[in-house]
Amino acid sequence: MQRCSATPILVFLATLVVWPVFSHAGPAADVLPTAAILGDVAPGSPVLNSAFAPGADARPAPPLVGTLRLAHATLATDPVIAVPVIGGRDARLFPGISLQLFTSGDLLVPVARGTMLVEGAVEGMPSYWRVIPQVGRVWHEAADGEWNRAALPLMLVNDTENDAHQGLATFLYKDGVVSQVRLQFVQQTGPYLVKPHLVAWAVAQATWSAGGIEGLVALRGAAEQEIAARIPARPWSDLLEELPAGTLDGFGGPLKAEWTVELALLRNGVLYYQDSATRYGPYPYPLEMRFGPRSVMKSVAAPLSLLHLAEVYGPWVLELKIGDYVPGLDPKFKRIRFIDAACMASGFGGTGTLRTHPNDIYDGYLGANYDDWYTAPSSAEKLAQINANLKPYPWEPGRVVRYRDQDFYLLGIAVDAFLKSVRGPDADAWHMIETEIFAPIGIAHAPAVRTREAGETDGPVWFNAGYYPTLDDLAKIARLYQNAGAWNGRQLLHRELTLDLLAARGALVKHGDRSVVTTASPDDNIDPELYRMGFHFTPYRSERDHALRNIPSMEGSGENEILLFPNGLVSIRMAKAFGLPDGVKAFTDDGPATIRAVERLAPF
Fold it and tell me: What is the pTM of this model?
């Protein structure tokens, strides 16, 4: 093998932005010796995560360029999966995949990083999972003799829900030969279809084909550019050293630490991140983790697409009617505007009660065969479920908030159809977001769930859930909103409408009754919770001046939460507090602990 060298800027960025902070990490060979990787004995459990990253005494390793083919493998889980076969696919199977890999210095770079890889053809039952590979490392340890080590983060995800299991893979290599691959998945999104909370591990047989990657120089350049475009990131300990003791006490709360996956704070252009604790030590690549934050997608796809289209074509886009772009729906959709669906105020979805005084936004949310709709693979099947099981409410659109994933799903179908009507049949709503919004702000990859159409082809992206972002992705999206839709002098989102959104202008009171009149009920709370265009607004009375601030929040089930503060800071909490055992409490009694911590740090 020929040794390659990384450019100085890539080496610097790998250290500053990607290189993990290892606590409790010794040499990987101490935790997972060469004999254990090469042996035939199946592991009885995962090992410490420090086995999947270089320690302080790591030495340079020779370069790798080629294709790693991983065979179908059986996942051991702790505890066992309650219902492992879902839709004819088995969640106990790691999918057989091929990974094109190359090194750039000590970085191990998958060509398909940030992409949901589908397994190849298999005999028997297919795997439930897809795999997202991320950037890892190569290194050499003295105890390994002629062998070298490679490791990379892998996310187990799927195309039926927004589940994500954060994992790790490692293998040995020398002279064009590789070992089998050790896999373990040690963090996760809160379980929905695949229950309960679990860890998983496996050994996958592997083969290696050297070379064969075209355009290697360009691929290395693209990797360098992606890393350079990341927000500068530093470990949480660096931030604490700058602050008076106790300043950030309670950050991440009131959610209990055991249900937290990752915490971060964007401050003064730097992303400070905490260790992601697991049963097997800190996850060694926190900045490479991709999460399944579920309804956070509602604060991404809908506002970004609508505000961008308003900038490109005009604010009238928000007034377009769902029924004009999605055929075959109830006639009421001819009166339901894009903005009504984006506020979950369609006046459709008639399950639950008709009580609106006070209103319960979750009334009937999971009724009407919800899971049959949620797991329906194709767009036509999802639309059929909506038509069969949901009915109009007696109030007009835009009056009452009722939490309905179907509103956002239909909005996505309508936005996609509108885009095709003005740009042609090949236009795609998510592709527009990727190329016209994400790319300019430095988000190179945006894996997201789409419907599964005939021939296993991809259909439209879900607007209600399904995005798999990193911390860097979420921080950039939040910062774009805070910058009133501008990035490096370029206006990507409609400025006035973006400012209106963050100020909660036009937001609906979650518990308010506007079913008859268009003004809020006279007995609304003084500080009501609000909702508009995928954003929740948390009322908060400042400890400094007791003034009311409505804090914009991007939220997803499992207690995933991104808060956009008026002082320009952004807090990120990725969590898994869903599907908890009976009697288990996810929260302390500490109230808005994160907001108070951020206010102590930078009063607003």
Answer: 0.95
- Of 498, 518, 536, the position where a domain reaches its end is 536
| Distance linking the first and last C-alpha atoms of the chain | 57
Contact 168, 183 (CB under 8 A): yes
**Are residues 93 and 240 both part of a single domain?**
no
Q: Which of 489, 513, 536 is the last residue of a domain?
A: 536
Nearest to 155 by CA among 84, 66, 95: 95
Do 25 and 126 share a domain, yes or no?
Answer: yes
pLDDT attached to residue 519: 52
Domain with 410 in it: 294-536
Is the omega angle on the peptide bond into residue 196 within 30 degrees of 0, that is, cis? yes
For 154, half-sphere exposure in the C-beta direction (CA atoms, 13 angstrom radius) is 26
CA distance 382 to 364: 18
Same domain, 429 and 470: yes
CA atoms 351, 356, 362, 363: torsion sign: negative
Look-up of token digits 């977001």: 433
pLDDT digits (tens, 9 = 90+) for 211-234: 999 999 999 999 999 999 999 999
For residue 70, tell me if it sits in a domain. yes
In a domain, 580, yes or no: no
- Examine the pLDDT at 517 and tell me if it is beyond 80: no
Reference 568, options 604, 533, 597, 536; nearest CA is 604
